[in-house]
Amino acid sequence: MDSIIEVQRQTHEEIEHFERALYTLLSKPQPTHETRLQTEHKASQILDRVSSRAIALKNSYEDQDARSAEIDALSARPDDLSEFYARLGKIQEHYAKYPESGPSGFELELAAFLDVTADNIGDEEYEDDDPIALLFSGEEQYGKYLDLYANHTAYNNLKHIGKRLGYLHYLDALLAAQTNEVHLELPKECRLGRDYELYVKSLHTYLTSFIKRAQPLLDVETQQRDAEAEFDKKWEAGETGDWAEVRQASAPSGEGIWCAACQKLYSKQTVYDAHLTSKKHVKATAKQASSDLPPSNPNGPSSSSVAENGSSQQSSAIFKHRNAALYTFLCTRLLAGLAPVLNETKSNVERRFSLTAREREQELLEQSKPKAPPPPSSGVNGENGAEEEEEEERIYNPLKLPLGWDGKPIPYWLYKLHGLGESRHAFGMRALGLPNTKHFHEITRIEDALALAEKLKREGRNEIFEQETMEELEDEDGNVYNRKTYEDLKKQGLI
């Protein structure tokens, strides 16, 4: 058995090493979202190990008997060092037997954290088997966005929901939870159903799971326990807003007339008398008589049985509705913390709705490609750096599309919509009596085309209106000439 004092010393040392590794990990720069999230997951794992060792250390210090017994054994007599030398002999024997022993399990564990740091996070070899990427769906994009499509479908399938919402309107409804309880605008009959309870539980499970994966350093479980304690106080005090009315409406009073055959409680005598002649009651009475059960008592059972049955029904109904109210309250707190992510999710959905199918496919292909590591900077002179910046700023535009307000090529569908470079544009130019030259290629409005023509005339550039220079022709080799030059070269036999 190892010495308890040595175990405590070793545990203190391991905690100190983990704290240093945590500092080394968090002090590295995190340039991208992926590297930041990977670092946070590593830091969370280190904190879990520090926490487990701290708990073990606390328990060992609380075991005063074992510690006192060992201290007494070592200090029984000041002149008796036999116990000390016996332990020293065991240590020397171990190292004599294993003179070149490899690193311990703790050293290997610590090296695993220090090897995978911000220095090599992002390398192609590391991305091939990145365990963090496997935690997220494609829609979540490495924890950047929420994937609420399944919850949206469950929401629209609720009974008595009234108006069903599109996905964007559903996200707006969740965003409104920052100032009000989520889905409190739903009708009472909808929130009293079993479907709503299952839906809000599923929503709570997903939000909790997403926070644990996307924000691993956040102690969401402690926050949820505090929120549940706050809800309990409000529930007992009747301060749960509209849920307090639901609680009162759903709770039976426990008073009325009990029908033993139908196993049902009737609130009024007239209602009870009317049901005695119904087929359901007659059939239930006959079944009760054939099974040798006590006969139905029109005057109702004893007050104690009525109270017991009413109390059971009341507690069951209140518990069911309390669960729905609790998970609604917890989801509200989670959504308030996820408001920035929810806003980013909405923006991403709106952006994707504006893309064509071809552009969406291209985006998916770009996301699936591994990121190339940045080229090493030479740092010899400023010219190389300027060339690299120029290459980065160069825009890929093989179709030669016009640039939009953001400096990037406009979508191809917008290019076709305006009729740029198409027969529609050429027909419009002929109708205006203007040449279809390159000066007018990106003009889409009639007034703009006329204004440009007047400007060109004022500048003395009337040659663009000459038919022989207006048209451009292409030879078999792909060379482009105006009509006059083309005809001259063709007469000379050069084309």
From TrEMBL:
<keyword id="KW-0539">Nucleus</keyword>
<dbReference type="Pfam" id="PF16837">
    <property type="entry name" value="SF3A3"/>
</dbReference>
<dbReference type="Pfam" id="PF11931">
    <property type="entry name" value="SF3a60_Prp9_C"/>
</dbReference>
<dbReference type="InterPro" id="IPR036236">
    <property type="entry name" value="Znf_C2H2_sf"/>
</dbReference>
<feature type="domain" description="U1-type">
    <location>
        <begin position="254"/>
        <end position="288"/>
    </location>
</feature>
<dbReference type="GO" id="GO:0000398">
    <property type="term" value="P:mRNA splicing, via spliceosome"/>
</dbReference>
<protein>
    <submittedName>
        <fullName>RNA splicing factor PRP9</fullName>
    </submittedName>
</protein>
<dbReference type="InterPro" id="IPR051421">
    <property type="entry name" value="RNA_Proc_DNA_Dmg_Regulator"/>
</dbReference>
<dbReference type="GO" id="GO:0005681">
    <property type="term" value="C:spliceosomal complex"/>
</dbReference>
<dbReference type="InterPro" id="IPR003604">
    <property type="entry name" value="Matrin/U1-like-C_Znf_C2H2"/>
</dbReference>
<dbReference type="InterPro" id="IPR013087">
    <property type="entry name" value="Znf_C2H2_type"/>
</dbReference>
<dbReference type="InterPro" id="IPR024598">
    <property type="entry name" value="SF3a60/Prp9_C"/>
</dbReference>
<dbReference type="GO" id="GO:0008270">
    <property type="term" value="F:zinc ion binding"/>
</dbReference>
<dbReference type="Pfam" id="PF12874">
    <property type="entry name" value="zf-met"/>
</dbReference>
<feature type="region of interest" description="Disordered">
    <location>
        <begin position="283"/>
        <end position="311"/>
    </location>
</feature>
<dbReference type="InterPro" id="IPR021966">
    <property type="entry name" value="SF3a60_bindingd"/>
</dbReference>
<dbReference type="GO" id="GO:0003723">
    <property type="term" value="F:RNA binding"/>
</dbReference>
<feature type="region of interest" description="Disordered">
    <location>
        <begin position="360"/>
        <end position="393"/>
    </location>
</feature>
<feature type="compositionally biased region" description="Low complexity">
    <location>
        <begin position="290"/>
        <end position="305"/>
    </location>
</feature>
<dbReference type="Pfam" id="PF12108">
    <property type="entry name" value="SF3a60_bindingd"/>
</dbReference>
<dbReference type="InterPro" id="IPR031774">
    <property type="entry name" value="SF3A3_dom"/>
</dbReference>
<feature type="compositionally biased region" description="Basic and acidic residues">
    <location>
        <begin position="360"/>
        <end position="369"/>
    </location>
</feature>
